[in-house]
Amino acid sequence: MSGPKIPLAGVIGSPIAHSKSPLLHGTWLRKMGLPGHYVPMDVAPEDFEQVLRTLPKAGFVGVNVTVPHKEAAIRLADVVTDRATLIGAANTLIFLEDGRIHADNTDGYGFIENLRQNAPDWDANAGPAAVLGAGGAARAVLASLLDAGVPEIFLSNRTRVRAEALQSDFGTKIKVVDWVQAGNMLEDSATVVNTTSLGMVGQQELRVPLDGLQKGALVTDLVYNPLQTRLLREAEEMGCVTVDGLGMLIHQAVPGFERWFGQRPVVDADIRAVLLR
Ligand code: ATR
C-alpha cells in the first residue's frame, strides 16, 4: 500500500440501520470531494469496548456513538469535554494519535446552532424556557440553554422524578412543573422545547394546551419525523416562530466531520433535502 491514508469514521449503535449519519457524512464527503469513508456498525454492548480499542489500529480517526453506548463511551474515554461530562453521555469520539480517546457531546451544540440558523432573532436572555421531557435529549438541551444564557427553565415530564433528578444535577435555575400542568408553564416562556418522543411517527401526539403561549415565542421540537409536528403546526398558527428538529441532527454532526475529515461542512437546504428523501 502507498499514498496518503484514507480516514475512516462511522457510527456505532444497536440497532443502527435507521441511522441517518452514514447518509449525512457520506453526502458531505462526496460533495466536498474529500477522501474518507463513514460506516454504520451494529455492535452489542458486550463487544463495545473491544471494537472501540480495535478501530484506531484499523485506520479509524473517530466515531459517533449512539444508543445504547453513549454512557459507556464516556467511561472508556481518556479525555472528556466539560459539556459531555455535564450531559453524562458522549456522541462524538476522536482517536488521538497518542492512543487516547477524546469524548465530546455535540447534541447541545447542534440544538443551539439549529436555533441560531433558523431563528436568527432568537434571544436566549429574552425570558424563561419551557422544556418538555427529561430523558437523554433533555439533558443536552438543558445544558446548552443554560450555557446560552437562559435565565430560568421550567421542566415538565410525565415521570416527575426524572425531572427532579435533572433539577438536582443542573441546579436552581430549573423549576419542575407537574406534567398535567405543563400548559401553564408556557405562558411565561420565551422558548418552548419538546424533547419527548411524542409526535414522532408511530407515537402518540404531544397534547399540551398552547392557549397561553406568547406570540413571538420560539417553539422547537426535537422530533424531525414528521418535520412539522402537531406542536409546531399549532404554534405557527398562533404566530410563534417555529424550528423543526432536522437541523439539530445535521448541526450536531459538524464538529466530528470537521475533525475527522479536515474541512467544515455546510448546513444548507441541499443537505436537508438529502436527509428527507
Ligand atoms: P431520549 O434520549 O430521546 O430523550 P428517553 O431517555 O427514552 O429518550 O426519553 C424519552 C422522553 O419522552 C421522556 O421524557 C419520556 O417520559 P418518561 O420519562 O415519563 O418516560 C417521554 N415520553 C415518551 N413517551 C411518552 C408518553 N407516552 N407520554 C409522555 N411522555 C413520554
UniProtKB/TrEMBL annotation:
The record's annotation in SUPFAM superfamilies points to: Aminoacid dehydrogenase-like, N-terminal domain, NAD(P)-binding Rossmann-fold domains
User: Where, in this chain's numbering, is shikimate bound?
Assistant: 19-21, 66, 91, 107, 224, 252
Q: Which Pfam families match?
A: SDH_C, Shikimate_DH, Shikimate_dh_N
Q: State the function annotated in the UniProt record.
A: Involved in the biosynthesis of the chorismate, which leads to the biosynthesis of aromatic amino acids. Catalyzes the reversible NADPH linked reduction of 3-dehydroshikimate (DHSA) to yield shikimate (SA).
- What GO annotations for molecular function exist for this entry? NADP binding; shikimate 3-dehydrogenase (NADP+) activity
Q: What keywords are assigned to this protein? A: Amino-acid biosynthesis, Aromatic amino acid biosynthesis, NADP, Oxidoreductase
Q: Where is the Quinate/shikimate 5-dehydrogenase/glutamyl-tRNA reductase domain?
A: 129-197
Q: Which residues form the SDH C-terminal domain?
A: 245-275
Q: What is this protein called?
A: Shikimate dehydrogenase (NADP(+))
Q: Which CDD domains match?
A: NAD_bind_Shikimate_DH
Question: Where's the Shikimate dehydrogenase substrate binding N-terminal domain?
Answer: 11-93
Q: Where does NADP(+) bind?
A: 82, 133-137, 157-162, 222, 245
The EC number(s) given in the record are: 1.1.1.25
Q: Which InterPro entries match?
A: Aminoacid_DH-like_N_sf (IPR046346), NAD(P)-bd_dom_sf (IPR036291), SDH_C (IPR041121), Shikimate_DH (IPR011342), Shikimate_DH-bd_N (IPR013708), Shikimate_DH_fam (IPR022893), Shikm_DH/Glu-tRNA_Rdtase (IPR006151)
| Reactions mediated catalytically | shikimate + NADP(+) = 3-dehydroshikimate + NADPH + H(+)
The protein's annotated pathway: Metabolic intermediate biosynthesis; chorismate biosynthesis; chorismate from D-erythrose 4-phosphate and phosphoenolpyruvate: step 4/7
